[in-house]
Amino acid sequence: MADAAVRIATERLSAMYGKSTAVKDVTLSFAANRVHALIGPSGCGKSTFLRAMNRMHELTPGGWITGRVLLDGQDVYAPGVNPMQLRRRVGMVFQKPTPFPTMSIFDNVAAGLRVGQRRPKAELAETVEQALRGAALWDEVKDRLATSAVALSGGQQQRLCVARTIAPQPEVILLDEPTASLDPQGTQRIEELLFTLKQTFTIIIVTHNMQQAARVSDTTTFFYLGGMVETGATRQLFTSPAREETEAYITGRFG
What we know:
33% helix; globular
């Protein structure tokens, strides 16, 4: 955990929310400016693990955790940590696009920026533009920023959610199957975006798509039945996994 390049890590993390599969005793660290994929069959605990990293699981009744989640060496569950402020540092994008339906494109991106201190209009506009450019969406929406966000296509809405997430300049971005509801073109745009975003952010992505994990990630972790089975460099894990269960999963023998 002492490695300066590690921005977020878990120590003996066990967690659960709602009726989801519990995560059991997982210790992992994620180096900065990399894409880290979490793979495994449905119900193996990937999303529970992801949600525990920025305390999103607490929003579901019955959510609990033991162990620690460290962000820059500090436990995000320590007394006095504000969950809302934490989620500005560890942002999250969900499986289905979640634009705020009553807000314009501009206001969707600016929503998180308006929490807390007031920003001058010029600064707010500049930050919104930078976020939309960072999400590869600016050129498509710059002439209709005042229109409803729900008028965008599914792929554009998901990139809008990415823009909203990166606008406050988080350290870590959590992606929970961000392309599951998108068509192939929308999926490709999101995947291409990850290569750019990892220059600035640390990215952890849950995916059921083995080809996607192989394409976009630097490291991959395989979860099964709530536990971590194997983790390592993506190329190594997909070509010569150390565990029989990992090989069985990535070759399609179960899952």
